[in-house]
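User: quick one, fold this
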Amino acid sequence: MSRILLCLAVSLATLTGCSQPPYVDASRFTAELSAPYQLGSGDRLRVIVFGQDQLTNSYAIDGAGDISMPLIGLLRAQGLTTVQVAASIDSRLRQGYLRDPKVSVEVEAYRPFYVLGEVGGSGQYPYVNGMTAQNAIAIAGGFTPRGDQSSVNLTRNIDGRPMTFAVPLTYPVRPGDTITVRERFF
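Assistant:
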């Protein structure tokens, strides 16, 4: 009898360990929402150098996280804000190219977000400002009949590492996020 109880306890402990994917602390996600937007591969920037039409243009951030501009060449943009990129361009242009450059940088197009799991059309979609997980799922064709509509898994790169957390449907989505709709069991 004790052997059966021991087997049941071990089985229950094993099943409990399998039921929950490895989630991170919600405070990491909340802090990330209030932080300024960090640029990443796939973003498209509009760089304006006032009075210099040859330098004013749209630049895509490549897979290595750089943009390539005339005169200054490759410039690191991955993980920086638009203000930091503008300051970096300004600094590089002051090194023998322009006396007093005035530089402005804005995001022209954000990198896409991804929706997976129990939705009408899994895939990659263009990001829109102010989007929530519910909006993202609607863009992806809505929930399938088996989709869990109580919450979704959201994966975001924080400090260079992907982190996953279960979030409500009203949670804000950022560019590059992956939303996974789980299958419901009942």
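User: anything notable?
Assistant: Confidence is low (pLDDT under 50) at residues 15-24.
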